[in-house]
Amino acid sequence: MGTRPEAAFDAPVFLPSAGIPPPAAKLRSALRFDWVIAAGAAAIFLSLALWPISRDEGQYVAATALMRTGLPYRDFAYLQTPLQPLLLAPLAWLPAGALLVVSRLFNGLCAFATLLLVSSAARRITPSSLAALSVIALALSEPFLLAGSLARNDALPMALLAGAVAVMCRTLRESSRNPRPWLAVGLLMGLAVSAKINFALPAAGAGVFLILRTRRGDWRPLGYCFLGGLLGLLPTLVLAAAEPHRFVFDVFTYSLTAPQQFLHLTHHRGRLWPPRKLFELTQLALSSLIIAGLVAAVADRCSGKVERLLDLMIVGGLIGAYLPDPAYSQYLVPLLPCVAVRLAAALGRVRGGARTAVRALVLVGCGLGAAHIGIDLDHAITRSWPLRDANRQGRTVAQLADGRPVATLSPELIAGHDVVLDRGFATGPFLYRTEGKLADDSNGLGFSPGWQQLDSYFALHPPGAILAGAELRPFPPVHPKGLDAPLVRWAEAHHYRPLTLPGRDMTLFLRP
User: Fold this and answer.
1) CB-hemisphere CA count at 13 Å for 423?
2) Under a CB-based contact definition with an 8 Å cutoff, are residues 411 and 218 in contact?
3) Residue 20 has pLDDT above 50, yes or no
4) Is the same domain home to 363 and 461?
5) How far apart are CA 383 and CA 377, in angstroms?
6) Vertex 265, ends 261 and 269: CA angle to 5°?
7) For residue 62, which of 414, 395, 334, 393 has the smallest C-alpha distance?
8) Parent domain of 449
9) Has residue 287 been placed in a domain?
């Protein structure tokens, strides 16, 4: 299969067919694409309503709530770069229960924006029918649904990166010599990194692309992109400069140390073995368009500017997906906008066995994503609706705690203006489950106590109430009864009064 010249794609996409004038063909194509976008939106918001409440949501919802009275790193621990709580600070005035719901809705809107931006980029470089297939495959990818459903920090940077990809595709396809669009590209990618540091590696791929293009003697795109990137990183740089030690501990020390420590303590160190990580990442990628996109990119021999850019960003995203320990679906999210557009670009060119393989992999990814929604829907119908239960529990805790500070490993359920969260548990179970020097450093910086330090911490900060029940999964040998067990033991030893909450099996212990 020879290289197809880039000029071949400058021909109009919509060719007149028998009896149908070109404007009518364009209208029909646009209407079909509107249905695709509507179907993608339905998948996002259905998944958002159905996805079970996750411990991963805790630190993000808590950080938003705590923005009423403080800032990340200075006043409470936040294990990510800071853009999301800064941007969502106005939501801090929502009541308990509602804050979780609205945080999820915000991420759903970011995921929907990603669909629109990816479709815009894809339709500039490929026929609408192929762009539509790629958009549907993206909307039904499990990492995409996770990003758009949970109140984590994946959807915001995903939308920002998709915006950068859309601007770059437009600029490169039009062969514009105006360097100013690259300022917007840098700004969007810098903001994405300020929302989640994992997005730095796809952004680095775009930087490599611009560096290689400077061989033609034009440094302006690289300079504008670098300047935009600095502007986008300003929220992170300012807060890091204000609290450098706490910033380094939260964003780097914890991420590089704590997951490995916990896996060793719970005898799951096998998940750190590189071949097993690769196997788990491949399994997770099968529930998305990523494997199909990678196969299509390898089989596609077109070496146009857009394709080279996307390939470099995908390489950066693959490195970024592998680096964190252990392998999780959310680490694939930075790949999604680049892979979706690259898949759309390659679909019309791959032939033979590669074409069959790509189509089969797209079907597998879409099927697994749709199955996830179906499983969650069945759970909601036969058992309970997760957001309804969480909203009810948040309101109940707000009434019962009555302004007293609440310590919990599940702050996502109760964060809001009418609940006083114990700042020591702002990261939920994550800093709390550490041991040794890591726990001592966390406690010394004024962050969460480790589970072994509860007595000394509560002696200084006695809670008005303790909420437990979501962290009952056993982690032998150190936590055979779950991470909540030390909190429950402390509450019982100090004669706190237990009250069972409606919905999930949660217990609120009130100080006598």
Assistant:
1) 19
2) no
3) no
4) no
5) 10
6) 75
7) 414
8) 386-510
9) yes
Residue 393 CA, chain-centre distance (Å), reads 25
Q: Which of 349, 381, 413 is the last residue in one of the domains? A: 381
Would you say residue 489 has pLDDT above 80? yes
The span from the first CA to the last CA of the chain, in angstroms, equals: 77
What does DSSP say about strands 497-500 and 507-510: parallel, antiparallel, or unpaired?
A: antiparallel
Distance CA 311, CA 502 (A): 50
Question: Strand 406-408's sheet: what is its strand order?
Answer: 406-408, 465-468, 507-510, 497-500
Amino acid code (one letter) for 215? R
Question: Could you say which of 354, 381, 408 is where a domain stops?
Answer: 381
pLDDT band at 215 (very low <50, low <70, confident <90, very high): confident
Secondary structure class of 508 (helix, strand, coil): strand
Q: Between vectors from CA 322 to CA 335 and to CA 274, what angle results, nearest 5°? A: 150
The pLDDT assigned to 19 comes to 40
Omega into 326 within 30° of 0, i.e. cis? Answer: yes
Summary count for the chain: helices (H), strands (E): 22, 4
Cα separation, 245 vs 196, in Å, equals 19
| 325 contacts 257 by C-beta, under 8 angstroms | no
Q: Is 287 in a helix, a strand, or coil?
A: coil
- Residue 127 neighbours by CB under 8 Å, 6+ apart: 13, 348
Q: How many folded domains does the chain comprise?
A: 2
Res. 297: pLDDT tops 90: yes
If asked whether residues 91 and 147 sit together in one domain, one would say: yes
296 & 403 share domain: no
pTM over 0.90, yes/no: yes
The number of residues making up the chain comes to: 512
pLDDT in tens, 401-446: 999 999 999 999 999 999 999 999 999 999 999 999 999 999 889 8
Contacts 24+ apart (CB under 8 A), 252-259: 253/438, 253/441, 254/79, 254/430, 254/431, 254/438, 254/442, 255/79, 255/324, 257/438, 258/430, 258/431, 258/433, 258/434, 258/438, 259/324, 259/325, 259/326
Identify the pLDDT of residue 304: 87
Alpha-carbon span 332 to 135, nearest angstrom: 17
Convert the pLDDT of each residue in 232-288 to its tens digit: 999 999 999 999 999 999 999 999 999 999 999 998 999 999 999 999 999 999 999
Concatenating the DSSP letter of every residue in 312-347 gives HHHHHHHHHHHSSSS--GGGGGGGHHHHHHHHHHHH
- Confidence tier at 22 by pLDDT (50, 70, 90): low
What does the mean pLDDT of the chain come to? 90
Asked if 315 and 432 sit in the same domain, the reply is: no
